[in-house]
Amino acid sequence: MNEQASGHRAGPVRSAAARDAILAATARLFQGQGYDHLTIEGIAKEAGVGKQTIYRWWPSRGALIAECLTDGRLIPIDFDVPYSGDLLRDVEEWLGSVLAILETPHGAMLLRSLVAAAAEDAEVGDHLSASLGVDRHLAERLAAGIRDGQLAADAPVELLGHAVLGTIIVQSLTRRPDVAGALRELVRYLVAAR
């Protein structure tokens, strides 16, 4: 009798289903409870798997969160930065897309939880930066701004992107009002500095 006739799933199918269940459970619990209350035991229970199954694929909660970021389960992945020819307008449009998610009540809590996870696991911070497009799309757009003469020739494009991301994080952690206004002011200053 073959596996299909018996109704049993093959190993890779079962592994894919378990992986998906674990990541879905991690995202649900992380978004609902935050990082501080997220446990491997809770994830295993929510996913309907054993803890050993989770540890077979991920060494820590942070590694699970990083993979959830990579899969787009926590925030949309890969925010594009448009190219209209106007550097300031393009960066502000990207920033608007990022803030649209972070300005929701759930988004601010999610970012604070991601920062807590990144404090334990650097991979989470790397994936957050990549998911928001800071290291790739924003850096590329800023480099195009240099080529177009809209940014100083020696502008440190990666550092500028990290300065914006750092400001987003600090504004969120301190729960300051008008995060968008502060970020737009910073972006205008950075882009105008020639």
TrEMBL record:
Coiled-coil zones: none
PROSITE patterns: HTH_TETR_2 (PS50977)
Top-level lineage group: Bacteria
Limits of the HTH tetR-type domain: 16-76
Record-linked SUPFAM superfamilies: Homeodomain-like (SSF46689), Tetracyclin repressor-like, C-terminal domain (SSF48498)
Gene Ontology MF: a single term: transcription cis-regulatory region binding
Membrane-spanning ranges: none
Keyword set, alphabetical order: DNA-binding, Transcription, Transcription regulation
Signal peptide range: none
Segments of the chain annotated as binding DNA: 39-58
UniProt keyword DNA-binding, yes or no: yes
Protein name according to UniProt: TetR/AcrR family transcriptional regulator
